[in-house]
UniProtKB/TrEMBL annotation:
Pfam families: Asparaginase_2. Coiled coil: none annotated. InterPro entries: Ntn_hydrolases_N, Peptidase_T2. This is Isoaspartyl peptidase/L-asparaginase family protein. CDD domains: Ntn_Asparaginase_2_like. It comes from Paenibacillus timonensis. SUPFAM superfamilies: N-terminal nucleophile aminohydrolases (Ntn hydrolases). It comes from the Bacteria.
């Protein structure tokens, strides 16, 4: 049995183009597995597909930071070997998840950040790409203009003013019972340069073991400080169904931090869950090569987490 889930982040639209992009990414992962490629390659390729799609805040189409450029985070984890690697606050590279994979396989390190991550990417053949789209640039210019004119306008912390989507992630179970998780993001709109979210934090926004694979989306700082991905894994290890574990984790996240987000998880039996407490959380799932409806749980507290122009310093 193989099970693949991908998400396009909380607050992302669920209109056909967004859903089709997710389905295509899940299908890519399935095809990789069907060709005999390993689970990490399948998860990486699914995320690459979303990094290439400007509708999502990962790779091309990432949100801009306070100073008007893109810094991306990405991570990958193998539930079988326990190997993890990540890049953080990396500039001018589209495929953060693939650079993380290279860090895992071609370096002695676990996490590379900033200019060192970019240098490593160049040394491994990743070409320069500022990842900026006209939509994201317009969103950033609007935010800065409003700030300068002293107008108090609310922006979604997850989507920006015009931006419609956010972090992308993939969890999968392969035919041999192996689990993997992969994630990529442009982070949060108007973040300070150098800010790192939960995506590259093992146990914060991503985790994989022999029990389950987990990826998270939402306010990164909250997922880091609560070690939410690891919490989900511990719950599943103790016998919880993934849906029960993820629901408990979202309630806990909100109780401890007042924040909002979504969790995608699959366990070693192929049981999957997608739980969030925001306005939307588009997810696609392929089980044994067939698209299936994801058991999506929307918890009652909706996202009120916003940035105001006064947050743009
Ligand atoms: N968690 C990501 C971050 O804080 C953003 C998101 O998932 O929406 O960088």
């Amino acid at each position: 049995m193989s099970v693949i889930l991908v998400h396009g982040s909380v607050e992302t639209k669920t209109d056909p183009p967004y859903m089709l992009g997710l389905e295509a990414a899940a299908l890519t992962a399935y095809q990789e597995l069907a060709r005999g490629h390993d689970r990490l390659t399948a998860a990486e390729k699914a995320v690459n597909e979303l990094e290439n799609n400007p509708l999502y805040n990962a790779g091309l189409g990432s949100v801009l930071n306070r100073d008007g450029y893109v810094e991306v985070d990405g991570a990958i984890m193998d539930g079988v070997t326990g190997k993890f690697a990540a890049v953080a606050a990396m500039q001018e590279v589209r495929h953060a998840v693939s650079v993380a994979r290279k860090v895992m396989e071609e370096s002695r390190h676990v996490v590379l950040a900033g200019t060192g991550a970019t240098l490593f990417a160049r040394e491994h053949g990743f070409s320069a790409d500022n990842c900026i789209t006209a939509v994201q640039l317009a969103s950033w210019e609007t935010a800065i203009h409003l700030k300068r004119s002293g107008k108090e306008v609310e922006f979604s912390a997850f989507t920006g003013l015009i931006k419609e989507s956010d972090t992308v992630g993939c969890v999968l179970l392969d035919d041999h019972g192996g689990l993997a998780a992969a994630s990529s993001t442009g982070g949060s709109f108007l973040k300070l340069p150098g800010r790192v979210g939960d995506t590259p934090y093992i146990g914060g926004g991503i985790f994989a073991s022999s029990y389950c694979a987990v990826v998270c989306t939402g306010r990164g700082e909250a997922f880091i400080s609560t070690l939410t991905a690891k919490f989900v894994e511990e719950e599943i290890k103790s016998g919880s169904h993934p849906q029960e574990a993820a629901t408990k984790a979202i309630h806990r996240l909100h109780r401890l931090t007042g924040e909002f987000g979504g969790i995608l998880v699959v366990d070693s039996s192929g049981r999957a869950a997608a739980v969030h407490n925001c306005v939307s959380f588009p997810v696609a799932m392929i089980r044994n090569g067939i698209l299936e409806q994801v058991p999506l749980v929307q918890l009652p507290s909706h996202n009120t987490d916003t940035f105001e122009t006064s947050d743009v310093t």
